[in-house]
Input
Amino acid sequence: LPPPVRRAGGGEPVAGGRGLVQFVLAAHEGQRNTRLFWAACRAYENGIGPALLTPLLEAARTTGLPEREARATIASAAR
Output
């Protein structure tokens, strides 16, 4: 895989990052945690995990996942 494309100034990763956030936003009840974990794993594998922490957290909360659960899921993916 090519390295992720980043905006000038170190902003949000454009290429894979946006797709990962959209993947989480499309989650329905019963798949929210699984989708968040998968997206966070891909983000950390591609070196954009820290940059996507807040966008993934916000996406998870938008789907109805409690913040504490979302943070724990992302932390687990980072390991």
In short: Confidence is low (pLDDT under 50) at residues 4-10.
